[in-house]
Amino acid sequence: MSQVQVEIQQPAPSEPLAAPTASHHRVRLPSWLTLLLRNHKAQIGLGILFVMVLLAAIAPWIANASSATNFVDLPRQPPSWSYPFGTTDQGSSVWAGVVFGARRSLATGFFAAVIATVLATSLGITAAYAGGIVDEIISLITNVAIVIPAIPLLIDVTAYLHSRSMLTMILVVGCLLWAIEARILRGQALTLRNRDFIQAAKVSGESTRRIVFGELMPNMVSRIAAAFILVFYISILVEAGLEFIGLGNTAKASWGVSLYWATVNSSVLQGEWWSFLFPGLAIGLTVLALTLVLVGIDEVSNPRLRGLPKKRRFAFRRSAA
Amino acid sequence: MTAASPATTPRPFGRREPLVELRGLSVEYLTRTGLPVRAVDGVDLEISPGEILGLAGESGCGKSTLANALMQILRPPAQISGGQILFNGDDVTAKSREELRKFRWRNVSMVFQSAMNALNPVTRVGDQFIDMMQAHERISKREALNQTGDLLELVGIDRRRVRAYPHELSGGMRQRVIIAMALALRPELVIMDEPTTALDVVVQREILQQVKQLQRELGFAVLFITHDLSLLVEIANRIAIMYAGEIVEEAPADEIHRAPRHPYTIGLMQSFPPLHGPIVRMTGIPGSPPDLAAPPEGCRFHPRCPHCRPEDSFLYARQTTERPRLRQVGEGHLVACHLVEREG
Amino acid sequence: MSAVPAELEVQGLTKHFRVGGALFERSRVHAVDDVSFVLRPGTITALVGESGSGKSTVARLLARLYTPTGGRVLFDGKDLTSLRGRRRTLDYRSQVQMTFQDPFGSLNPAKTVRHHLARPLRIHHVVPRDHIDQRVHELLDTVGLVPPETIAAKYPHELSGGQRQRVAIARALAVEPRVVVADEPISMLDVSIRIGILNLMADLKEQHNLAFLYVTHDLASARYVADTVLVMYAGQIVEQGPADKVLSSPLHPYTELLLASVPDPEAGARDEIEVRKGLAAAAVDPGERCRFVDRCPIAIDVCSRVTPPLVEARRDQSARCHVRAPSPDLREELHA
């Protein structure tokens, strides 16, 4: 019964104590973040992500930059001691391609997510709080952006633009993926807006700007973080997809480009599994990791999904005495 | 911590076989930390056939949990961890699923605080009755519809409203529909959990009048759960006061009103400003109910009790270490309090 | 009582909401209609009514969370209803504050108690920056939350319901207002702590000479704490007067109905109240009539044709009723 839940979640604390309670940490992490860090799924996801980022960061020290894209040795070699992931059809090192590709792929995904989240958050929350005509206009723009099929548009735009730089990719992906999150964030901001504490802030005299950034947003942080992660992993997939069909910069190392070359050179048919397995695995693991973190955020934000220590979840013993 | 042992609490004599008997009932929740929280701790309670028993207490005292346990609708992580629930002598906890299905609604039914929690918003009222009736007995749709009309009239609603959707009815009418549903199978006990709290005061009065009238006509027993003690004094035959999972006082309604003995009851009565007489400054009760995960040692009310003072060292020692047991202090009047025990 | 100058005067306050989604929908809910009253310093005025009576709308109109459809709000004689500009709105907000019904909902779960009290102090420059902590502690002291240093660092979920409501009151007091609108401050609190909050309000009214508007549905608490009572029904004030007079010898049949319905353990066996079908309290396009006529046991012919005005039938006590408080202007109508 819902009433049963209520009785747990409202333990009335005792009277204010004469002595101060628990010691304060210097840096007080938001409680949901601490919870997230304790969540098993999030831990796995964050772990994998950490490894990926680490590899990307130390790439120059664990591989040779030029061997990612240029001919360095015998082509079509299966994994060996000197080339742990083997060599491609062009004779470049798959390993170098993966670790250097990580830099490009992760960075593109990350910044695209940043742009999309900033757009989604500012537009979504403003629409919700301002209401009226402002809301109507922003909602119109958002709905149009959602309805436009993103992938075909991305293909068209990237094909049309002659620049193949990372910046282009970031902008293109970021500016098209914000819309769905904007709508979700608007929805959440709307429910919050009518909560009494927002009205109370208004009655105190807070300005709109301060209410949006100081009162609304801090209560939406977990949702915004979720939005960021979501766009991050969609960007990685979209970007890889675009590169896969040849719309990326085929001269630079990136996971999608590696897959492109693998396809173009019919590596699959030739049984050269190493040239597409490893880049594909990199993409898959990263996306998996991000999904796990997302699920973790979900569990942490929704109190009903957590709550029970796993052992007891299905134990419903009836003891008569 | 000594639990009250079952069947040692003295019961007033000269009464018929009780309809419901709770003996040493305990209900626990398992929390995330693994420590059990006892929402109901060793409760002895009896409901006689045809009586209105009021159960009063504030948030977190366990009264709703007790009701859920009675109906066997506790959801994990809550579970009965001790004691017995006897209905007409049968142990409810030992019933099979099929027996429980019949037991619920036919022997005991429940009226909740918010009708909208119990009514399906997309189904017509009449259909909900029919569904419920057909789930419990072999009855044709026409006959069920007929009976539904009778039931609605019984609670003062035009029988043509069977075709209405819940949102088309006012709050008071919806609550009456819920009461009609609860009476559909003529149960012997109806549990009402804060049935009028969400309603306006005039509607509340109408509903209560209705309930009293129905109870006179049909003779069912009522377990009326609420935080509003002033309401209970008017409607209940007997009142039990619950605090932090325990029953602390139990007496006939007018006795609770005239001569409450337990300091918590006295404090509660002191929390309702009167409608007549001089206006004097009242005190309520300082502090707030305890965290059931770590209740106070001894008497659970002692941190808030004006009679718990270290100066009175012998009594204080008892109050802080020993849980008081329900003892008889008058005709039908039970109190669990060391002070009252000492005063005799 | 009339010798004391008014703090805040409300004249003919009206608020209509459009009903239905259609663009040219004409129906209007008359949430508040022609409400007039006066709040004086050092008094608590109870605004009593059931759900849909309009009392919460009045509270929000006073707190300027809604803009009125009609009527005026006067402060020291100056009309504030058409305030424009941030300076003047802030000025108003430093004089009129509000507390809300849900003690948990009215506090930001992500912010400490200190934040909630410091913000108004900063916005209105009540004290210089380095004095803010001190003032926060003083405010917590005033509302009985001790020790203030500990409480100030807590988050809302670490406090009990009663403590949260006290924080909300402290926040309202931070700007040193002259009027505080308290919207059902105790209805969501446990019974045993309600009196504490009511006592706090009474003490604050004395110590700081505040004017409180106590919005409630609970007559008993209104009697306990209020000096004046205003009874609202379907958007209108149907009776007003000193609390003890209105609640012991009411004029209006609705007030009588309320008094007969409130649980009263002292009363012996009571007469049953009559169940009468009536329109839902908030009136949609009510027209010219008494809004209580469908439920009224003493209605006469004119009640369905003419809206009764608020008339002072006894000293200081007014009611909106053709029978109990007949208007001299309508003498011919009434004797028709």
How would you characterize the overall build of this protein?
The complex is a heterotrimer of chains A (about 325), B (about 350) and C (about 325). Chain A is mostly helical and about 325 residues long. Chain A contains 14 helices and no strands. In chain A, helix 6 (about 95-130) packs across helix 13 and helix 13 (about 255-265) runs antiparallel to helix 14 (about 275-300). In chain B, about 35% of the residues lie in helices and about 20% in strands. Chain B contains twelve helices and twelve strands. In chain B, helix 5 (about 140-155) packs across helix 6 (about 170-185) and helix 6 packs parallel to helix 7. The longest helix of chain B is centred in the middle third of the chain and has 18 residues, at about 200-220. Residues about 1-15 of chain B have low confidence and may be disordered. Chain C is an alpha/beta fold. Chain C has helices at about 55-60, 85-95, 115-125, 130-140, 150, 160-175, 190-210, 220-225, 245-250, 255-260, 330-335, and strands at about 10-20, 30-40, 45-50, 70-75, 80, 95-100, 180-185, 210-215, 230-235, 235-240, 285, 310-315, 315-320. In chain C, about 45% of the residues are buried. The mean pLDDT of chain C is about 85. Chains B and C meet through helix 7 and helix 8 of B and helix 7, helix 8 and helix 10 of C.
Q: Tell me the radius of gyration of chain A.
A: 25 Å
Helix and strand succession of chain B?
Answer: EEEHEEHEHHHHEHEHEEHHHEEH
Overall shape of chain B: it is globular
Main pleated-sheet profile of chain B = 8 strands, mixed
Which percent band covers the strand fraction of chain B?
A: 15-25%
Q: Report the helical percentage of chain B.
A: 25-40%
Instruction: Tell me the number of strands of chain B.
Output: 12
Strand arrangement, largest sheet of chain B?
6-7-8-3-9-10-12-11
Order of helices and strands of chain A: HHHHHHHHHHHHHH
Spatial separation of the terminal alpha carbons of chain B: 24 Å
Mean pLDDT of chain A: 78
Category from helices, strands and their pairing of chain A: mainly alpha
Summarize the biggest pleated sheet of chain A: none
